[in-house]
Amino acid sequence: MKKRIFLLIACIAAALTGHSQGNKDIMPLVNERFDKIFLNENFDSAGTSWATVSNSENLILVQGGEYILQRKATVSPFAVIGTFTNNLSSFRMVTSLILKKANTNEGSLGIIFMAQSGGQGGFIFEINKLQQYRLRQIKNGVYRYLTGEANTGGWIKSTLLKTLGLPNIFEVRTLDRNYDLYLNNVLIISFSEIAYKTGDIGYIIGPESKGSVDFLYLFTNQSRNDIEYNASVGEENVIADPENDIKALAESIIGLKTQLNTLTEENEELKQIILSMKTDEKEIANEMSETKKNINNLEAQNRKNQASFDSLLKVNEDLNKYKELVKGNDNGDIVINLSKSLKAEKLKNEALLKQNKELKDNLQLNQAQKKNQQAKPDSSKVKDDNGGFVLPKENP
């Protein structure tokens, strides 16, 4: 019980303070203020900026304010690149990654940035269901791991990552070929790479996985004159005024999404706390029921013991009568002596009964023999022809 209480307190503390773990040794390389919005994508409606796919292996579409990506195939990931061209050399990109399902450890969801034509270059940031992330670079069509070790696929465990179904806010800031990567508002990676000046943006979904994205914003410090205008982005999305309401709205949405992310996680943790409390209450109720049962058993045993005690009191009362009889007698063992005498007399009585029986048996035998003798003629007298008796001859 004490262990559970400690865990509950720890969960509550975590829910109230949130997770802000990161590598404090990492220093940001980009400190620019990106005050102009270049792309404002909330996936409110299907447009021409993002591909839709529906076949036996993939289902990718815009629906319900989300860009949904589902990979049905059991091998290899699948990537989609936005149809607009990102010709920004310095920018701040903010998006959300919500991994909803991953049937295997290979399942993942990620974003591609600085993608080069023909898949010959770019960066891929991914997350998986094990609360791990990794950063890879595509170099001449081959993956190069920028995090972790090759034998573990470059994955790094992080408590910053949310569990399945919860959004993770991912952010890239780049200037002069320097890159800072943030995960849920915490700086996790800083590096430099001179290979790319600009590059496209897309998303990648792992095998047997499902995820979604609910927003993507691009901010820049470049003026409109410095940007090669791309009609596919839309006139309403390319705005150079730093005071524009759209930028403020986008920033507000990012803040609200981040806050919603935190509150959703806290809500899940509180649900677990409540569930644990309910489990404890059930255990306490079971313990109380068992204790009540034990009390009833003890009370029954106590009543039984009381009845035995009453019987002993009665026996003791009878013994006290004998005690009173021998009280003050010089021979304190009179009861024992009387018992011995009684036993001796009993033995004598049994002997006499046995002897009496034997005598009776002998008497009955003698009577029977006598009766037999009276019934037989006397062989010592022989009757002659004259009616007299001839006496037997004397023994020589």
Query: How far apart are the first and last residues' alpha carbons, in Å?
Result: 122 Å
Structural class given helices, strands, pairing?
alpha+beta
Provide the helix percentage.
25-40%
Please identify, by name, the CATH architecture of the largest domain: Sandwich
Order of helices and strands: HEEEEEEEEEEEEEEEEEHHEE
How is this fold's topology laid out?
Elements: H1 2-17, E1 36-41, E2 53-54, E3 58-63, E4 66-71, E5 78-81, E6 91-102, E7 109-115, E8 121-127, E9 132-139, E10 142-145, E11 156-157, E12 168-175, E13 178-183, E14 186-192, E15 200-205, E16 209-213, E17 216-220, H2 245-326, H3 334-375, E18 382-383, E19 389-390
Antiparallel strand pairs: 1-17, 2-3, 3-4, 4-16, 5-15, 6-12, 6-16, 6-17, 7-8, 7-15, 8-9, 9-10, 9-11, 12-13, 13-14, 18-19
Helix pairs in contact: 1-2
Word description of this protein:
Residues about 1-20 and about 235-245 have low confidence and may be disordered. The relative contact order is 0.14. Helix 1 (about 1-15) runs antiparallel to helix 2 (about 245-325). The protein has two domains: about 1-275, Exo-inulinase, domain 1 (Jelly Rolls), CATH 2.60.120.560; about 315-375. Strands 1, 2, 3, 4, 6, 12, 13, 14, 16 and 17 form a ten-stranded antiparallel beta sheet that branches. With about 400 residues, the chain is α+β, with helices and mostly antiparallel strands. It starts with a helix and ends in a 6-residue tail after the last strand. It has helices spanning about 1-15, 245-325, 335-375; strands spanning about 35-40, 55, 60-65, 65-70, 80, 90-100, 110-115, 120-125, 130-140, 140-145, 155, 170-175, 180-185, 185-190, 200-205, 210-215, 215-220, 380-385, 390.
